[in-house]
Write a sequence for this structure.
């Protein structure tokens, strides 16, 4: 009686005989399984796409932050480069007047000078005083050379103008006098 309620026919051997309705249900089930598999694959593809997009966005955000930081350093470097001649002016003014009648003015200038130099140091500016160091063409500009055996060849003997670094990048090379050893040709050979 159960077999009649579900329209399942049994063949002569007692096996199930598929009716058209059973074939339709089996076909619909197979199509549903295929659709579920397709949807699962689509979901996996969408998840992978989302992960790639998130990684791309994170990389984009990091690149923009890095570029902003570099832009900020470049703009600050430009301002600092414009201030270096002012520091030079202060130094010349302070060196020029050492008489007693200028003492009050001198103290004011020294205070302003110190504040300016301290604030630039906070921004990452470093003054380069290479006296006695080895000449480096990337950080120094040779203005003069002196033949001497009293110092090692390539040693900086005098600093005409200090150099400045900004976050380890040369803003202005130090202008210097460099020691060179005399060569036999430069000693003036007598024939």
């Amino acid at each position: 009686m159960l077999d009649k309620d579900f329209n399942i026919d049994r063949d002569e051997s007692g096996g199930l005989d598929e009716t058209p309705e059973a074939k339709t249900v089996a076909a619909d089930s197979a199509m549903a399984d295929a659709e579920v598999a397709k949807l699962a694959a689509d979901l996996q593809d969408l998840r992978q796409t989302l992960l790639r997009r998130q990684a791309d966005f994170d990389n984009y955000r990091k690149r923009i932050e890095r570029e902003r930081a570099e832009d900020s350093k470049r703009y600050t470097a430009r301002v600092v480069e414009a201030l270096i001649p002012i520091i030079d002016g202060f130094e010349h003014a302070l060196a020029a007047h050492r008489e007693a009648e200028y003492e009050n003015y001198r103290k004011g200038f020294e205070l302003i000078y110190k504040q300016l130099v301290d604030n630039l140091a906070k921004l990452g500016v470093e003054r380069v005083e290479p006296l006695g160091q080895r000449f480096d063409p990337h950080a120094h500009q040779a203005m003069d050379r002196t033949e001497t055996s009293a110092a090692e060849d390539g040693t900086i003997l005098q600093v005409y103008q200090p150099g400045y670094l900004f976050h380890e990048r040369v803003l202005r090379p130090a202008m210097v006098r460099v020691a060179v050893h005399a060569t036999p040709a430069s000693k003036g050979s007598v024939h």
About this structure: Strands lie at 9-10, 16-17, 125-128, 140-147, 156-161, 163-166, 169-172, 174-180. The mean pLDDT is 86. The domain at 20-123 is CATH 3.90.20 (Hemagglutinin Ectodomain; Chain B).
